[in-house]
User: Which sequence fits this backbone?
Protein backbone atom coordinates (compact mmCIF):
# COMPACT_ATOMS: atom_id res chain seq x y z
CA UNK A 1 0.00 0.00 0.00
CA UNK A 2 1.36 3.42 -0.97
CA UNK A 3 1.80 5.88 1.91
CA UNK A 4 -0.21 9.07 1.55
CA UNK A 5 1.23 12.52 0.86
CA UNK A 6 -0.12 15.35 3.03
CA UNK A 7 -0.26 18.70 1.22
CA UNK A 8 -1.63 22.23 1.28
CA UNK A 9 -2.81 23.92 -1.91
CA UNK A 10 -3.71 27.50 -2.73
CA UNK A 11 -3.48 29.71 -5.80
CA UNK A 12 -4.88 32.78 -7.56
CA UNK A 13 -4.06 35.10 -4.69
CA UNK A 14 -3.34 37.99 -7.10
CA UNK A 15 -1.14 39.78 -4.59
CA UNK A 16 -1.16 43.59 -4.92
CA UNK A 17 -4.10 43.57 -7.30
CA UNK A 18 -5.14 47.23 -7.56
CA UNK A 19 -8.89 46.51 -7.11
CA UNK A 20 -9.84 49.36 -9.42
CA UNK A 21 -12.52 49.19 -12.10
CA UNK A 22 -14.66 46.98 -9.88
CA UNK A 23 -18.43 47.10 -9.57
CA UNK A 24 -17.80 46.92 -5.83
CA UNK A 25 -16.50 50.52 -6.11
CA UNK A 26 -13.96 50.16 -3.30
CA UNK A 27 -13.26 53.51 -1.62
CA UNK A 28 -9.55 54.35 -1.54
CA UNK A 29 -8.95 53.58 2.16
CA UNK A 30 -10.86 50.29 2.07
CA UNK A 31 -9.18 49.31 -1.18
CA UNK A 32 -5.78 49.78 0.47
CA UNK A 33 -6.92 47.78 3.49
CA UNK A 34 -8.24 44.97 1.31
CA UNK A 35 -4.97 44.74 -0.63
CA UNK A 36 -3.15 44.24 2.66
CA UNK A 37 -5.69 41.66 3.83
CA UNK A 38 -5.18 39.62 0.67
CA UNK A 39 -1.43 39.57 1.31
CA UNK A 40 -2.06 38.51 4.89
CA UNK A 41 -4.27 35.66 3.64
CA UNK A 42 -1.28 34.22 1.77
CA UNK A 43 0.88 34.45 4.88
CA UNK A 44 -1.84 32.76 6.95
CA UNK A 45 -1.97 29.95 4.40
CA UNK A 46 1.76 29.43 4.79
CA UNK A 47 1.33 29.24 8.56
CA UNK A 48 -1.33 26.57 8.01
CA UNK A 49 1.21 24.47 6.11
CA UNK A 50 3.53 24.59 9.09
CA UNK A 51 0.79 24.02 11.69
CA UNK A 52 -0.53 20.94 9.87
CA UNK A 53 2.96 19.61 9.16
CA UNK A 54 2.28 19.05 5.47
CA UNK A 55 4.87 17.48 3.20
CA UNK A 56 4.32 19.84 0.26
CA UNK A 57 2.78 23.19 -0.60
CA UNK A 58 1.31 23.40 -4.12
CA UNK A 59 0.71 26.79 -5.80
CA UNK A 60 -0.59 26.39 -9.38
CA UNK A 61 -0.28 29.98 -10.49
CA UNK A 62 -1.33 33.62 -10.19
CA UNK A 63 0.40 34.16 -6.87
CA UNK A 64 0.57 37.85 -7.75
CA UNK A 65 -1.26 40.12 -10.17
CA UNK A 66 0.73 40.84 -13.31
CA UNK A 67 3.83 42.92 -12.57
CA UNK A 68 2.11 45.15 -10.01
CA UNK A 69 3.48 43.28 -7.00
CA UNK A 70 5.70 45.44 -4.81
CA UNK A 71 9.16 44.47 -3.61
CA UNK A 72 7.86 44.74 -0.04
CA UNK A 73 5.01 42.27 -0.61
CA UNK A 74 7.27 39.83 -2.42
CA UNK A 75 9.82 40.00 0.41
CA UNK A 76 7.10 39.05 2.93
CA UNK A 77 6.05 36.08 0.79
CA UNK A 78 9.59 34.85 0.28
CA UNK A 79 10.19 35.12 4.03
CA UNK A 80 7.01 33.11 4.69
CA UNK A 81 8.15 30.36 2.31
CA UNK A 82 11.61 30.33 3.86
CA UNK A 83 10.07 29.89 7.31
CA UNK A 84 8.58 26.59 6.12
CA UNK A 85 12.14 25.27 6.12
CA UNK A 86 11.90 21.56 5.28
CA UNK A 87 8.45 21.82 3.62
CA UNK A 88 9.00 22.03 -0.15
CA UNK A 89 6.98 24.64 -2.07
CA UNK A 90 6.14 23.99 -5.72
CA UNK A 91 5.02 26.93 -7.89
CA UNK A 92 3.74 26.75 -11.47
CA UNK A 93 3.45 30.40 -12.62
CA UNK A 94 0.16 31.30 -14.29
CA UNK A 95 -0.85 33.89 -16.85
CA UNK A 96 -0.81 36.75 -14.31
CA UNK A 97 2.41 35.92 -12.44
CA UNK A 98 4.06 34.74 -15.67
CA UNK A 99 7.73 33.80 -15.62
CA UNK A 100 9.42 36.23 -18.04
CA UNK A 101 13.09 37.30 -18.09
CA UNK A 102 12.14 40.42 -16.08
CA UNK A 103 9.87 38.58 -13.64
CA UNK A 104 10.49 38.35 -9.93
CA UNK A 105 10.71 34.59 -10.50
CA UNK A 106 14.09 35.37 -12.11
CA UNK A 107 16.69 35.38 -9.32
CA UNK A 108 19.03 37.59 -11.36
CA UNK A 109 16.33 40.27 -11.23
CA UNK A 110 16.03 39.90 -7.47
CA UNK A 111 19.80 40.14 -6.97
CA UNK A 112 20.05 43.19 -9.23
CA UNK A 113 17.48 44.94 -7.03
CA UNK A 114 19.18 43.87 -3.81
CA UNK A 115 16.27 41.62 -2.83
CA UNK A 116 16.21 38.30 -1.06
CA UNK A 117 16.23 35.38 -3.53
CA UNK A 118 13.91 32.41 -3.48
CA UNK A 119 14.82 29.98 -0.66
CA UNK A 120 16.11 26.49 -1.37
CA UNK A 121 12.83 24.82 -0.36
CA UNK A 122 10.98 26.57 -3.22
CA UNK A 123 10.89 24.95 -6.65
CA UNK A 124 9.58 27.15 -9.46
CA UNK A 125 8.66 25.61 -12.80
CA UNK A 126 10.19 28.20 -15.12
CA UNK A 127 9.85 26.52 -18.53
CA UNK A 128 6.84 26.69 -20.83
CA UNK A 129 7.35 22.96 -21.39
CA UNK A 130 6.31 20.40 -18.80
CA UNK A 131 9.12 19.27 -16.49
CA UNK A 132 9.12 16.82 -13.60
CA UNK A 133 10.96 16.83 -10.28
CA UNK A 134 11.04 14.36 -7.42
CA UNK A 135 9.94 15.25 -3.92
CA UNK A 136 13.13 15.92 -1.90
CA UNK A 137 12.25 13.51 0.94
CA UNK A 138 9.72 11.26 -0.80
CA UNK A 139 11.50 9.96 -3.95
CA UNK A 140 8.46 7.84 -4.85
CA UNK A 141 6.53 11.11 -5.40
CA UNK A 142 6.96 13.27 -8.51
CA UNK A 143 5.62 16.73 -9.25
CA UNK A 144 5.12 17.89 -12.84
CA UNK A 145 4.46 21.46 -13.92
CA UNK A 146 5.01 24.24 -16.43
CA UNK A 147 5.04 28.03 -16.48
CA UNK A 148 3.31 30.71 -18.45
CA UNK A 149 6.02 32.94 -19.88
CA UNK A 150 3.69 35.80 -20.84
CA UNK A 151 0.11 36.86 -20.17
CA UNK A 152 -1.50 35.74 -23.39
CA UNK A 153 -4.34 33.38 -24.18
CA UNK A 154 -3.13 29.87 -25.02
CA UNK A 155 -5.64 28.06 -27.19
CA UNK A 156 -3.50 24.92 -27.47
CA UNK A 157 -4.88 21.85 -25.68
CA UNK A 158 -1.80 21.20 -23.56
CA UNK A 159 -3.25 18.07 -21.95
CA UNK A 160 -4.31 16.45 -25.21
CA UNK A 161 -1.02 14.59 -25.68
CA UNK A 162 0.62 12.41 -22.98
CA UNK A 163 3.02 14.33 -20.73
CA UNK A 164 6.30 12.35 -20.51
CA UNK A 165 7.55 11.79 -16.97
CA UNK A 166 9.49 9.17 -14.98
CA UNK A 167 7.56 6.38 -13.26
CA UNK A 168 6.43 7.10 -9.71
CA UNK A 169 4.09 5.63 -7.12
CA UNK A 170 2.42 9.01 -6.62
CA UNK A 171 2.44 11.66 -9.35
CA UNK A 172 1.15 15.21 -8.99
CA UNK A 173 0.43 17.72 -11.75
CA UNK A 174 0.44 21.49 -11.15
CA UNK A 175 -1.50 23.09 -13.98
CA UNK A 176 -2.86 26.57 -14.58
CA UNK A 177 -5.62 26.46 -17.18
CA UNK A 178 -9.30 26.48 -18.08
CA UNK A 179 -11.37 23.36 -17.45
CA UNK A 180 -13.95 23.63 -20.21
CA UNK A 181 -16.71 21.98 -18.15
CA UNK A 182 -16.24 24.40 -15.26
CA UNK A 183 -19.50 26.09 -14.29
CA UNK A 184 -18.38 28.66 -11.68
CA UNK A 185 -19.70 32.19 -11.86
CA UNK A 186 -16.27 33.62 -12.68
CA UNK A 187 -15.88 31.68 -15.92
CA UNK A 188 -16.95 34.61 -18.09
CA UNK A 189 -17.23 37.49 -15.62
CA UNK A 190 -14.66 40.26 -15.13
CA UNK A 191 -13.14 39.50 -18.57
CA UNK A 192 -11.94 36.09 -17.44
CA UNK A 193 -9.44 34.74 -19.94
CA UNK A 194 -10.09 31.27 -21.37
CA UNK A 195 -6.59 29.89 -21.69
CA UNK A 196 -4.86 26.51 -21.83
CA UNK A 197 -8.25 24.76 -22.09
CA UNK A 198 -8.70 21.10 -21.20
CA UNK A 199 -11.50 18.63 -20.64
CA UNK A 200 -12.12 16.19 -17.80
CA UNK A 201 -11.33 13.32 -20.13
CA UNK A 202 -8.02 14.87 -21.20
CA UNK A 203 -6.90 15.47 -17.64
CA UNK A 204 -7.89 12.01 -16.37
CA UNK A 205 -6.27 10.46 -19.43
CA UNK A 206 -2.88 11.79 -18.28
CA UNK A 207 -2.98 9.32 -15.38
CA UNK A 208 -1.69 11.61 -12.64
CA UNK A 209 -2.62 10.64 -9.10
CA UNK A 210 -3.81 14.20 -8.53
CA UNK A 211 -3.78 17.59 -10.31
CA UNK A 212 -3.59 20.85 -8.34
CA UNK A 213 -5.34 23.34 -10.63
CA UNK A 214 -5.25 27.12 -10.84
CA UNK A 215 -6.98 29.85 -12.88
CA UNK A 216 -10.60 29.75 -11.76
CA UNK A 217 -11.50 31.50 -8.53
CA UNK A 218 -14.05 29.17 -6.96
CA UNK A 219 -13.55 25.68 -5.58
CA UNK A 220 -14.21 22.96 -8.14
CA UNK A 221 -13.24 19.31 -8.29
CA UNK A 222 -12.85 16.69 -10.99
CA UNK A 223 -13.70 13.12 -10.02
CA UNK A 224 -12.99 9.89 -11.85
CA UNK A 225 -15.48 7.14 -12.70
CA UNK A 226 -15.00 5.65 -9.23
CA UNK A 227 -15.96 8.93 -7.58
CA UNK A 228 -12.47 9.81 -6.30
CA UNK A 229 -11.21 13.38 -6.56
CA UNK A 230 -8.40 13.47 -9.08
CA UNK A 231 -8.08 17.24 -9.50
CA UNK A 232 -9.26 20.40 -7.76
CA UNK A 233 -9.21 24.16 -8.02
CA UNK A 234 -8.73 25.68 -4.57
CA UNK A 235 -10.04 28.97 -5.99
CA UNK A 236 -8.73 32.33 -4.82
CA UNK A 237 -7.82 32.81 -1.16
CA UNK A 238 -9.78 36.03 -0.68
CA UNK A 239 -12.48 37.71 -2.73
CA UNK A 240 -11.66 40.92 -4.62
CA UNK A 241 -14.41 41.28 -7.22
CA UNK A 242 -18.11 40.58 -7.52
CA UNK A 243 -17.46 37.40 -9.51
CA UNK A 244 -15.67 36.08 -6.40
CA UNK A 245 -18.70 36.32 -4.10
CA UNK A 246 -18.91 33.54 -1.54
CA UNK A 247 -16.40 31.75 0.71
CA UNK A 248 -12.84 30.93 -0.41
CA UNK A 249 -10.35 28.36 0.79
CA UNK A 250 -6.94 26.80 0.97
CA UNK A 251 -7.06 23.02 0.57
CA UNK A 252 -5.55 20.64 3.10
CA UNK A 253 -5.40 17.17 1.61
CA UNK A 254 -3.96 13.69 1.64
CA UNK A 255 -3.49 11.70 -1.53
CA UNK A 256 -2.22 8.34 -2.63
CA UNK A 257 -1.65 6.79 -6.05
CA UNK A 258 -5.39 6.70 -6.81
CA UNK A 259 -6.31 10.27 -5.89
CA UNK A 260 -7.53 12.16 -2.85
CA UNK A 261 -7.93 10.24 0.39
CA UNK A 262 -9.04 13.25 2.47
CA UNK A 263 -9.64 16.90 1.61
CA UNK A 264 -10.50 19.82 3.90
CA UNK A 265 -11.39 23.36 2.88
CA UNK A 266 -9.90 25.93 5.25
CA UNK A 267 -10.81 29.62 5.22
CA UNK A 268 -8.02 32.12 5.83
CA UNK A 269 -9.98 35.31 5.07
CA UNK A 270 -12.58 36.63 7.49
CA UNK A 271 -14.57 38.54 4.87
CA UNK A 272 -17.13 37.23 2.40
CA UNK A 273 -18.51 39.09 -0.60
CA UNK A 274 -22.30 38.78 -0.88
CA UNK A 275 -24.19 39.45 -4.11
CA UNK A 276 -27.72 40.33 -2.96
CA UNK A 277 -30.71 41.20 -5.14
CA UNK A 278 -33.81 42.93 -3.79
CA UNK A 279 -36.95 43.38 -5.92
CA UNK A 280 -38.76 46.43 -4.56
CA UNK A 281 -41.77 46.18 -6.88
CA UNK A 282 -44.94 46.94 -4.95
CA UNK A 283 -43.23 48.98 -2.23
CA UNK A 284 -45.20 52.22 -2.12
CA UNK A 285 -43.28 54.25 0.46
CA UNK A 286 -39.77 54.93 1.74
CA UNK A 287 -40.53 52.90 4.85
CA UNK A 288 -41.66 49.83 2.90
CA UNK A 289 -38.61 50.02 0.60
CA UNK A 290 -36.26 50.13 3.60
CA UNK A 291 -38.08 47.24 5.27
CA UNK A 292 -37.79 45.08 2.18
CA UNK A 293 -34.07 45.84 1.77
CA UNK A 294 -33.40 45.21 5.46
CA UNK A 295 -35.22 41.88 5.45
CA UNK A 296 -33.27 40.61 2.44
CA UNK A 297 -29.95 41.70 3.91
CA UNK A 298 -30.73 39.80 7.13
CA UNK A 299 -31.66 36.71 5.11
CA UNK A 300 -28.38 36.66 3.17
CA UNK A 301 -26.37 36.01 6.34
CA UNK A 302 -23.88 38.85 5.86
CA UNK A 303 -21.83 39.78 8.92
CA UNK A 304 -20.46 43.17 9.94
CA UNK A 305 -17.03 42.20 8.56
CA UNK A 306 -18.42 41.32 5.12
CA UNK A 307 -18.75 43.09 1.76
CA UNK A 308 -22.23 43.43 0.25
CA UNK A 309 -23.14 44.25 -3.34
CA UNK A 310 -26.80 45.24 -3.32
CA UNK A 311 -28.75 45.00 -6.58
CA UNK A 312 -32.05 46.89 -6.43
CA UNK A 313 -34.52 45.80 -9.09
CA UNK A 314 -38.21 46.23 -9.87
CA UNK A 315 -40.53 49.17 -10.39
CA UNK A 316 -41.32 52.01 -8.03
CA UNK A 317 -43.72 54.96 -8.03
CA UNK A 318 -42.31 58.01 -9.76
CA UNK A 319 -40.04 60.12 -7.58
CA UNK A 320 -39.06 57.27 -5.27
CA UNK A 321 -35.41 56.19 -5.68
CA UNK A 322 -34.44 53.06 -3.81
CA UNK A 323 -30.70 53.81 -3.86
CA UNK A 324 -31.29 56.98 -1.83
CA UNK A 325 -32.75 54.82 0.94
CA UNK A 326 -29.73 52.56 1.46
CA UNK A 327 -27.52 54.97 3.43
CA UNK A 328 -28.78 53.64 6.76
CA UNK A 329 -27.40 50.19 5.89
CA UNK A 330 -23.86 51.27 5.00
CA UNK A 331 -22.61 51.35 8.58
CA UNK A 332 -23.68 47.73 9.13
CA UNK A 333 -20.98 46.19 6.88
CA UNK A 334 -17.31 46.64 6.08
CA UNK A 335 -18.37 47.84 2.64
CA UNK A 336 -21.73 48.20 0.88
CA UNK A 337 -21.97 48.91 -2.86
CA UNK A 338 -25.32 49.60 -4.52
CA UNK A 339 -26.49 49.07 -8.10
CA UNK A 340 -29.87 50.72 -8.55
CA UNK A 341 -31.55 48.91 -11.45
CA UNK A 342 -35.07 50.00 -10.51
CA UNK A 343 -37.32 51.70 -13.02
CA UNK A 344 -40.34 54.00 -12.60
CA UNK A 345 -43.66 52.20 -12.66
CA UNK A 346 -44.63 53.60 -16.05
CA UNK A 347 -47.57 51.86 -17.72
CA UNK A 348 -45.95 50.24 -20.76
CA UNK A 349 -48.98 48.13 -21.62
CA UNK A 350 -51.87 50.55 -21.35
CA UNK A 351 -50.47 53.35 -23.50
CA UNK A 352 -52.50 55.04 -26.24
CA UNK A 353 -50.71 54.31 -29.57
CA UNK A 354 -52.18 57.52 -31.05
CA UNK A 355 -50.16 59.74 -28.69
CA UNK A 356 -46.50 60.74 -28.94
CA UNK A 357 -45.83 58.86 -25.72
CA UNK A 358 -47.61 55.74 -27.00
CA UNK A 359 -45.79 55.77 -30.34
CA UNK A 360 -42.45 56.21 -28.54
CA UNK A 361 -43.13 53.25 -26.22
CA UNK A 362 -44.23 51.11 -29.16
CA UNK A 363 -41.14 51.88 -31.25
CA UNK A 364 -38.65 51.47 -28.40
CA UNK A 365 -40.16 48.13 -27.35
CA UNK A 366 -39.94 46.96 -30.97
CA UNK A 367 -36.24 47.86 -31.03
CA UNK A 368 -35.62 46.19 -27.67
CA UNK A 369 -37.23 42.97 -28.90
CA UNK A 370 -35.09 43.04 -32.07
CA UNK A 371 -31.81 43.84 -30.28
CA UNK A 372 -28.91 41.57 -31.19
CA UNK A 373 -27.43 41.15 -27.74
CA UNK A 374 -27.96 41.80 -24.04
CA UNK A 375 -25.85 44.97 -23.96
CA UNK A 376 -27.82 46.54 -26.78
CA UNK A 377 -31.11 45.61 -25.09
CA UNK A 378 -29.95 47.20 -21.83
CA UNK A 379 -28.93 50.38 -23.65
CA UNK A 380 -32.29 50.61 -25.44
CA UNK A 381 -34.19 49.98 -22.22
CA UNK A 382 -32.37 52.85 -20.55
CA UNK A 383 -33.19 55.04 -23.56
CA UNK A 384 -36.86 54.08 -23.19
CA UNK A 385 -37.00 55.23 -19.58
CA UNK A 386 -34.97 58.38 -20.16
CA UNK A 387 -37.37 59.24 -23.00
CA UNK A 388 -40.40 58.69 -20.79
CA UNK A 389 -38.83 60.81 -18.07
CA UNK A 390 -38.51 63.63 -20.60
CA UNK A 391 -42.05 63.19 -21.93
CA UNK A 392 -43.80 62.72 -18.57
CA UNK A 393 -41.68 64.59 -16.02
CA UNK A 394 -40.10 67.16 -18.32
CA UNK A 395 -36.56 66.46 -17.11
CA UNK A 396 -33.85 63.85 -17.53
CA UNK A 397 -31.34 62.81 -14.86
CA UNK A 398 -28.62 60.13 -15.38
CA UNK A 399 -30.09 57.66 -12.89
CA UNK A 400 -30.29 54.40 -14.88
CA UNK A 401 -26.56 53.74 -15.10
CA UNK A 402 -24.82 51.21 -12.83
Assistant:
Amino acid sequence: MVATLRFLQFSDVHLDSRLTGSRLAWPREKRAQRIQEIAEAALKACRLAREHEVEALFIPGDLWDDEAISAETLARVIEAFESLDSIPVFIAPGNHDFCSPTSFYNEDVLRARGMRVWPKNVHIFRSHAFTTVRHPTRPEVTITGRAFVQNVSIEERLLQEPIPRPPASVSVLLFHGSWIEYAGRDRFEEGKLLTAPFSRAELLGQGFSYAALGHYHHYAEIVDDEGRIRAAYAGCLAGRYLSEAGPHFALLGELDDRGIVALEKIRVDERTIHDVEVDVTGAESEVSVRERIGQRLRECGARASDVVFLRLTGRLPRGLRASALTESFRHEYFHLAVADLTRPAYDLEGHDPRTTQGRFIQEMRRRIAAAADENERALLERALYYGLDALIQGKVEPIYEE
Notes: The mean pLDDT is 93.
